[in-house]
Structure formats: structure tokens, C-alpha cells
Design goal:
Strands 2, 3, 4, 5, 6 and 9 form a six-stranded antiparallel sheet that branches. Strands 1-11-10-7-8 form a five-stranded antiparallel sheet, with helices on one face. The two termini are 15 Å apart. The protein is globular and about 45 Å long. It is 30% helix and 29% strand. The protein is an alpha+beta fold and 235 residues long. The chain contains six helices and eleven strands.
């Protein structure tokens, strides 16, 4: 099925004093659209550097004709090399979620907890795996070990089980899917999780900036950086 796509993105530092997210949106030589979001970690300098290195290296590799997994490997190596050159960056890392879309064919790769959402009608579906502790904590709720309230405020909920830090990657999510007409894709940093799925459905018709405004309107204490890339079909 021939579908044409357009994208837009934006970000806000939330309640944090600095921005550690990076993002990019590119049209590839074959006409495909490439979108990538990275959420840095390692303090003000380290997190910001890591996410930028990850995005820049990944985009450069894919634009040169390499696959998404190869781009991830090069981004991981670049984080290692940058940290090795500057001791102040030791321990820095980043998540990565990237999507390539052409016609009705979507492929993605991700490491960490930055989500890729497919919004269709009144349904919001997370397509990629969550490499934080959140799925394990939610499993405790289903088993009756802890309550939903306890799970929502668990101190280890956002602890990452994997990140792009220059070490061998053991958890990498890859996938592909054919999309129906009318679908919307959202690539986000985890700051968007302040917005319940029903509010995503209610506000998905807004611009990326409008979606970010909806996140900020939740007025969550300690709101994390939030970055959103929105991919929609051209009319």
C-alpha cells in the first residue's frame, strides 16, 4: 500500500534544569522517513553529550546506507570512544528508539525505555520493548504481590536494564510491521509517560508541540524532559 508520511518533533525540559534528550528527523535517499529519539543519562554534561552522540552517529550511519541495527552498533561504539577520551564522561549513556517508515512498511530498533507508540482510532499500542524495571514491577501487580499504587511509585520503576553506554548490548528490540491508513506513530522519551493513554488519544490530533503542552498540563512534580516525534500520513 502506498502511503506518504510527514513528521514533526519538539521537546521541553519539563521541571528539570537541563535538557538531556536529543532527536532527529530525516528523509533518506530512498524516500523513507527516519526518526530517532535518545534520552541521555549521566548528569547534565554526560547525558546531553551521550544523547547527541547517539543520535548524530546513528543518523550518519543510516544515511550512509547502513541498517538500523548497524547504526545502533556504531552509536554504541561512539559513546564508548567519547567516554574514553574524556574522564568526566565516564558512565554516560543513552536510550535510543528509531523508526524507518516507507509506504506502509515500518521497522524499528530500540534500547532502553523510550517508547514507540502506534495510535489507531481509540487504541494506543506500544510497539517496542521496555528495557526498564517497570514491566517486572507491573508483573508483581498482576500476581497480587503489590498494589497498582505501589507499582506506580516504586523507586526502582525507571531503573534501566539496558542502555547505549559503549558496553556489549544484551537487550535490543527490533521489529517490523505493516501499517493501516490513518495510523499515527509517536517516538518519545519516557517523560511522555506522564500522559495517560486516553489523553494521548484525545490529543494525538495536535502538533508535537501540542502533545508536549498536554504533558506539561498534567503538572506532575519533577516532570522529566519530554521529547516527541509525531509521524502522520500526508493528506
Amino acid at each position: 500500500m502506498k502511503l506518504k508520511w510527514r513528521g514533526e518533533g519538539g521537546q521541553h525540559k519539563g521541571a528539570r534544569p537541563y535538557q538531556e534528550d536529543s532527536w532527529a528527523l530525516r528523509t533518506l535517499p530512498d524516500g523513507a522517513l527516519l526518526a530517532v529519539v535518545a534520552d541521555g543519562m549521566g548528569g547534565h554534561a554526560g547525558g546531553a553529550v551521550a544523547s547527541k552522540v547517539v543520535v548524530d552517529t546513528f543518523v550518519e550511519a543510516v544515511e550512509a546506507g547502513k541498517g538500523l541495527k548497524d547504526g545502533l552498533v556504531e552509536a554504541n561504539d561512539a559513546v564508548r570512544d567519547n567516554a574514553a577520551r574524556d574522564a568526566s564522561l565516564t558512565g554516560m549513556g543513552s536510550t535510543l528508539v528509531a523508526a524507518r517508515i516507507k509506504d506502509d512498511e515500518l521497522s524499528w530498533v530500540s534500547v532502553g525505555d523510550s517508547p514507540l507508540y502506534l495510535v489507531s482510532g481509540r487504541k494506543v499500542e506500544r510497539l517496542n520493548a521496555d528495557h526498564s524495571m517497570a514491566p517486572h514491577i507491573d508483573a508483581l501487580v498482576r500476581r497480587g504481590v503489590i498494589s497498582r499504587e505501589e507499582a506506580a511509585h516504586h523507586p526502582g520503576r525507571h531503573t534501566l536494564r539496558e542502555a547505549v553506554m559503549g558496553e556489549p548490548l544484551k537487550l535490543v528490540d527490533e521489529g517490523s510491521r505493516r501499517l493501516d491508513a490513518g495510523s499515527t506513530l509517536l517516538l518519545c522519551s519516557d517523560g511522555v509517560e506522564s500522559l495517560p493513554h486516553e489523553r494521548i488519544v484525545d490529543t494525538v490530533g495536535r502538533s508535537a508541540g501540542g502533545l508536549i503542552d498536554a504533558v506539561l498540563a498534567m503538572k506532575r512534580p519533577h516532570q522529566d524532559n519530554v521529547t516527541i516525534i509525531k509521524l502522520v500520513q500526508k493528506s
